[in-house]
Fold this sequence. Notes:
The chain is mostly helical. Helices cover 62% and strands 0% of the residues. It has 2 helices and no strands. The mean pLDDT is 80.
Amino acid sequence: MPVPLGLARRLLLPPVRLPERAWKRSAFIATKQYDNGPQWIKVALTLGAAAALWRLLFMIHKRDLKEYERRQKALCEKCTDIQN
């Protein structure tokens, strides 16, 4: 019985090689990365943003504490008025 032609071709041909472009660098990482030191602009922006967020957090907390104390004082005055 003869061997089918498709099977014979697959057995006799060399193994499939990856295309040449598969070994090249991707377009998404085509720029050279410099790892010789920290990128001070990014460091400064990150620390500045973190400091600004912490400052905002403390300002909002301080405002909320003042509002809480004002309401507690108003509540205590209302309670003493009712008792008298």
